[in-house]
Specification:
about 475 residues, alpha/beta, Aspartate Aminotransferase, domain 1, Aspartate Aminotransferase, domain 2, seven-stranded mixed beta sheet, four-stranded mixed beta sheet, 15 strands, about 15% strand, globular
Length: about 475
Amino acid sequence: MEYQEIIERRKAILSRPVKPLPEDRLASERKLFTERNKRSLEIFEKAKNLIPGGVEHNLSQNKPFPLAMDRAKGCHMWDVDGNVYVDYLMSGAPIILGHGFDPLDEKIIGIISEKGPATGLTSEYELRAAEEIIRHMPGVEMVRFLQSGTEADMAAVRIARAYTGRQKIVKIGGSYHGWSDQMVFSLHIPGTGSLNSRGIPNGTYANLVDVAPNDFEALEKAFEDNEAGDGIAGVFVEPIGGESGTHPVHPDWNRRIRELCDRYGALLIFDEVVTGFRLAMGGAQEYFGIMPDITVLGKIIGHGYPSAGAVAGRKDVMSVCHGGLGEKIYLGGTLAANPISAAACYYALKLMTEHDAVRRASSYADRLTKAMNDLFATRSDLGFFVYNFGPIMHYVTTSFFSVDLSSPNAFTEIITRKQAADDYQTVTMAHGLCTLAGTRMYTCMQHDEEAMNKTMSVWEYLLSLIPKG
């Protein structure tokens, strides 16, 4: 689906009143959810006394309560009550080969049993992993491993400022670049500013420039206004748009940012925590044919194994990460590039190439996107639709992410639409589908016809609960 059609169809949904589930049907579905997940509820009730809010995971579906998972294999997960789910969360996108992919797990088990988890010193696997990343990503010549995407984004900020000698960082509204102080601004929905910044000092954002997505005029003005002062050190972008494409980019957006960075001497920073090795083996930089100066990678380089992240880029840019006292920037992480994470990266990338995993996951996503759009077309009164960037799928039901904050009662509208989407997700989860945030679905090469049939039957059931007209 092309950019302009996505924008127009989102606006069409926003022009209509949201369609919540009738109270009697919603009550019945919540009852079913609770009856199916008694052990998860017990765990949640205990967790509330031990863990703030009773849940650790930002990606968890928390209404009516979060589910506790027991295991995962292929494209499925099983919870502690024995219920099985077709999984489209995929640990937040890193799983491409499928959960518990034996050829990968066997390698990692061997490393744990033969070598142990970590020494705090160099192992050959970090070199192998770096070589594989560089081999695939056209804009990468050097790699520095870290422990998460958040850490990698923090490092990218520091690298850009050290390399350019400038201070300002441009962040596109609605995008997510980890939870460090300087990046928690205009999260999820463009224009929300410091809404989520409790606990962050007021002056933290002094060197952050917030630009609305696809606002070409504001982007150019940001460069012009800051040229005489501290200057723009770098521009952070999610190359398919904020929230992994929830706010899709105009076809000319990335190229224009590249042009402005070149003109003003700033660095283009692609946050490829989701798109790297998922959109294509060479990431969004291969997909769009636009080379960033810095590439941020996260959990995807470890295929779900923990403590995985990296910042990468051109050699001259990455050179600020080494040198003598006072010459290099400070980065740390005792478990960064540990043998388990680095080996998982090396072997996962090898196996993804060998099994053509990205193409297979993309092919399934293409077919599921078409099937869901065909189904949604039977309910023109709803306006639901799906679009995908390869194996990154977005389904739009209430369009709560797209509410214009300048409109009257914007926050009330967001809350109302978000609640309806959460209720839809309660139904899909109760019937065996696990998606992300009621808006997103990630596919892997293990999704098959059985998974597709299950997915479609659940969506058909959900539509049957929503009154027509």
